[in-house]
Design goal:
By secondary structure, the chain is α/β, with parallel strands linked by helices. The chain has a single domain, classed as Aldolase class I (TIM Barrel), CATH 3.20.20.70. It is about 45% helix and about 15% strand. The protein has eleven helices and ten strands. The strands form two sheets. It has an eight-stranded parallel β-barrel, surrounded by six helices. α10 runs antiparallel to α11. The protein is globular, with a radius of gyration of 19 Å.
Length: about 325
């Protein structure tokens, strides 16, 4: 493990005013979105859409890294140029989703455990040869009457820590992503409590395994009320509660923090990030790692106008620019 390599990679990933584009949707998720928009669910259509994303002119002005899926990291443009070489030439770091999805947590109804530790060392070695410099592993926690349980939080935290250590052994930066889902009618205060519990557990496990903290990126949800809550959280309230939670639970020497959009509207995700950067100095680099909040408009336009690649790319770059501005508190609608 080379600590300097990890720190240097993070410096490129968190370089202001840039963020990370998550395009690591699983086959099922990608196909479901295509189906909803009337797009054929084939490998070629997925390749075509991903080529649209990574070849967007000037993407590197606002995006420092792209998180890919196993299928995507092996794909090429229509002219035969590998996606990884396209990204490398743009100076964009190559990331890879390495967890293998969710499974039911036995004995814990409505709770999930993330799969993927088996064979992970071998897969990380292969992804590194394909050009990956960082990786991502996601755990999810759903707020309910009796969830998430302490057992579910602890076991997912253990898996995240083991994954992180394996990544660092390969000189790959681990993004650890404990996500508290927006599903439900819970209050912002409840989201705060569950987010704090999950973060405390994750960093406790990382410490136990002596994971190099400046070589880790946290990807986390914002602290806000559930989708079905009667009282919605304003950007100022989201910023206040989220930063309070992170300040109390996240070590100051962590490499950086990135937010997931997590079901927020495109505009809300941008406005909430912007509010964070208008709340005074922060103890760690803080930016975005959005999927839908950057891709949404481009995907919908492309589905309706598949021949107008430039039109879709213009929408993508506009969303990337908006979030880049929000990452330094300068976004204006």
């Amino acid at each position: 493990m080379n600590n300097n390599t990890l720190v240097e990679t993070i410096a490129r990933l968190i370089k202001s005013p840039k963020g990370i584009l998550a395009m690591d949707e699983s086959l099922n998720t990608c196909n479901r979105r295509f189906s909803d928009l009337g797009v054929s669910q084939t490998e070629e259509k997925r390749r075509e859409y991903r080529e649209l994303l990574i070849t967007t002119p000037s993407l590197e002005k606002y995006i420092s890294g792209c998180i890919l899926f196993d299928e995507t990291i092996r794909q090429s443009t229509l002219k035969g140029k590998s996606f990884t070489s396209v990204l490398t030439e743009k100076g964009i770091e190559i990331g890879i989703k390495v967890d293998q999805g969710l499974e039911d947590y036995i004995g814990h109804p409505a709770e999930k455990i993330t799969n993927g530790l088996e064979g992970l060392e071998r897969r990380l070695s292969e992804y590194k040869k394909l050009g990956a410099t960082f990786a991502k592993w996601r755990a999810v926690f759903k707020i309910g009457e009796k969830t998430p349980s302490d057992d579910c939080i602890r076991e997912n935290a253990e898996f995240l820590a083991r994954y992180a250590l394996l990544c660092q052994t390969e000189d790959i930066v681990p993004i650890v992503e404990p996500e508290v889902l927006m599903e439900g009618a819970h209050s912002q205060e409840k989201c705060y409590e569950v987010t704090a519990r999950s973060l405390d557990a994750v960093f406790s496990e990382l410490k136990k395994l002596d994971v190099f903290m400046p070589g880790v990126i946290l990807k986390t949800n914002m602290v806000l009320a559930g989708k079905d809550a009667k009282e919605k959280s304003s950007p100022e309230e989201v910023a206040k509660m989220t930063l309070k939670c992170l300040t109390e639970s996240v070590p100051r020497d962590i490499g950086g923090i990135v937010f997931l959009s997590g079901g927020q509207s495109d505009e809300d995700a941008t406005k909430n990030l912007n509010a964070m950067h208008n709340s005074g100095p922060l103890p760690w680099p803080l930016t975005f790692s959005y999927a839908r909040a950057i891709q949404n408009q481009a995907l919908k336009y492309w589905a309706e106008n598949p021949a107008d690649i430039k039109g879709a790319q213009d929408l993508l770059i506009n969303a990337a620019r908006n979030n880049s501005e929000a990452s330094i508190g300068k976004y204006k609608k």
